Amino acid sequence: MLKLALGPLLYYWPREKVMAFYEEVAASPVDIVYLGETVCSRRHELRAADWLALGAMLEAEGKQVVMSTLALIESSADVTALRRHTANGHFTVEASDMGAVQLLAGQAPFVAGPHLNIYNPPTLSLLAELGARRWVMPLEMGRDGLRHMQRERPAGIETEVFGFGRMPLAFSARCFTARNRNLPKDDCRFSCIEHPDGLVMRTREKQDFLVLNGIQSQSALVYNLLGELGQLRELGVDVVRLSPQSQHMGKIIGAFDAVRRGTAPAAASARMVAPLLPAPACNGYWYGKPGLEHLTEAAV
After folding, report:
1. How far is residue 276's CA from residue 252's CA, in Å, rounded to a whole number?
2. CA distance linking residue 65 with residue 151, whole number of Å
3. E strand segments, the chain
4. How far apart are alpha carbons 117 and 27 in whole angstroms?
5. Pairing status of strand 208-213 against strand 199-202
6. What distance in Å separates the CA atoms of residue 116 and residue 59, rounded to the nearest whole number?
7. Which among 46, 59, 178, 257 could disulfide-bond with 188, CB atoms 3.0 to 4.6 Å apart, if both were Cys?
8. DSSP string of 15-27, one letter each residue
9. What is the mean pLDDT of the chain?
10. pLDDT band at residue 121, thresholds of 50, 70 and 90?
11. What is the tens place of the pLDDT at every residue in 284-295?
12. Helix axes 249-260, 15-26, angle to 10 degrees
């Protein structure tokens, strides 16, 4: 059966909200929980010790816990934190950049995260030789590319697919949320905390285009492969990742769990969760189309 993973929290929420959120997650049917700050090292509502304590709590509830690293290392302090993170000695680590891979190679099994951009079998084989035990498909890769990767996948490595949430598409050294308020990055006044699902950026035609989340740019639409879980299963995918949003996450996890267990129809469930999303759904990348499109297999 497909395993459900809850990806790292990409937004900056108040400490109390984060704690309450993971208390709910502990009682949910997800199998794997990714923890840790992956977007901005200035976010300090939770410190490293807090993430480790949350990991211990979730592990005691039967979850497999993985600690994710920053996707963009920008300072010597970030490098120090990365070294401490990768040497935690207990939890598996998700490497979000090649610096983390270098620290983990030959030292501990790790997860090769989606931002490593693994687009071909030789790259996947190299990472497997370095110690990767699971890889996460890049956001823009579709089912045809995944089918090719699965045929050449090295033995002993699992495949995970980002299946729900606003897609983290790009990172920049600049903080766009701070810039939106005419604030310098070093004095951002933690503006991200005012946008629990990111800050929507619209075109001149008033159409939602992207979401600003600090130094991260996300899709404005919500990637949703709930209706495609059968295809993921047929392709031999091991894990589907759900990315946290601020509202209704428990219901969305429940919908994915019901479909993977075969107790609810996929297409109808996808329609059912639509009102629970902060924006309309999309799945174009999966079918090799523009990412903002929303298609069904019959329409391709």
Report:
1. 8
2. 28
3. 3-6, 32-35, 64-68, 92-95, 110-112, 132-136, 158-171, 199-202, 208-213, 216-224, 239-242, 281-282
4. 33
5. antiparallel
6. 26
7. 178
8. HHHHHHHHHHHHT
9. 96
10. very high
11. 999 999 999 998
12. 20
The model's pTM: 0.96
User: In percent, how much of the chain has pLDDT > 90?
Assistant: 96
Residues 6+ apart with CB under 8 A from 1: 260, 261
Among the listed residues 296, 236, 243, 241, the one whose alpha carbon sits nearest the alpha carbon of residue 271: 296
Helix axes 143-151, 121-130, angle to 10 degrees: 60
What pLDDT was estimated at residue 296?
78
Q: pLDDT (tens digit, 9 = 90+) per residue, 48-103?
A: 999 999 999 999 999 999 999 999 999 999 999 999 999 999 999 999 999 999 99
Q: How many CB atoms sit inside 10 A of residue 107's CB?
A: 13
- pLDDT tens for each residue of 223-265: 999 999 999 999 999 999 999 999 999 999 999 999 999 999 9
Q: For residue 119, what are its two tokens?
A: 């687009």
DSSP state of 275: G
**Interatomic CA distance for residues 204 and 132, integer angstroms:** 44
- Residue in the block written with tokens 């498909």: 137
Element containing residue 123 per DSSP (H, E): helix 121-130
As given in the structure block, the two tokens for residue 284 are: 């174009």
Could you tell me if residue 214 is left (phi over 0), alpha (psi between -120 and 50 degrees) or otherwise beta?
A: left
